[in-house]
Write a structure and sequence with these properties.
By secondary structure, this protein is mainly alpha-helical. It has one domain: Methane Monooxygenase Hydroxylase, Chain G, domain 1 (Up-down Bundle). Helix content is 74%, strand content 4%. A hairpin with a 5-residue loop joins β1 and β2. α1 packs parallel to α4. The protein starts with a helix and ends in an 11-residue tail after the last strand. The relative contact order is 0.11.
Length: 171
């Protein structure tokens, strides 16, 4: 491939990276919506969100395949293994205008990946805390009928729970 063909493939890669940026932004939005729906306990909206995420994931696989094919062609034309083909390496092989676009794309990707890591961690912690709270709640409900558990009446006296009680947890 000559310089012009390499530039064209780099342009294709930058278009692909723009789609990746949009996908990351959508993922950030999905994580935010997921946290809100978990807190609100909106099961039907959560179901719809998860279906939408699954559909987006399926279509993104095609995008990822296209990007990998472009990388393979660029790596072949530059004479390097695909694993060694980075945006930094492409900066060296392109003209100034394309180089600037690569630098901007790298900066945006770095920033978004940092945000995505943070949002992912926040969501994972929320879900972990929800699971922990639910486990504690269920343990306390189903351990009510066991001997040895002491409860206090309204007048402050103690009594042992001998029968099993169930509570409606819907607020």
């Amino acid at each position: 491939m000559n310089k012009v063909e390499i530039e064209n493939k780099v342009d294709e890669l930058l278009v692909s990276l723009t789609k990746d940026i949009e996908h990351i932004q959508q993922s950030l939005s999905n994580l935010d919506e997921l946290r809100c729906l978990v807190i609100k306990r909106d099961d039907s909206a959560l179901g719809r969100l998860l279906e939408r995420i699954q559909a987006e994931s399926d279509s993104y696989r095609q995008q990822e395949s296209k990007r990998q094919a472009i990388r393979q062609k660029l790596a072949n034309s530059l004479g390097c293994p695909v694993k060694d083909l980075t945006l930094s390496k492409l900066e060296v092989s392109t003209t100034d205008g394309t180089k600037e676009r690569i630098i901007r794309a790298k900066a945006v990707l770095r920033e978004l990946i940092g945000k995505l890591r943070k949002e992912y961690s926040s969501t994972a912690m929320l879900l972990s805390e929800c699971a922990r709270f639910n486990n504690m709640l269920l343990r306390s409900i189903f351990n009510l009928g066991r001997n040895g558990v002491v409860y206090y009446n309204a007048d402050g006296t103690t009594r042992r729970q001998s029968e099993t009680a169930f509570v409606n947890l819907q607020f």
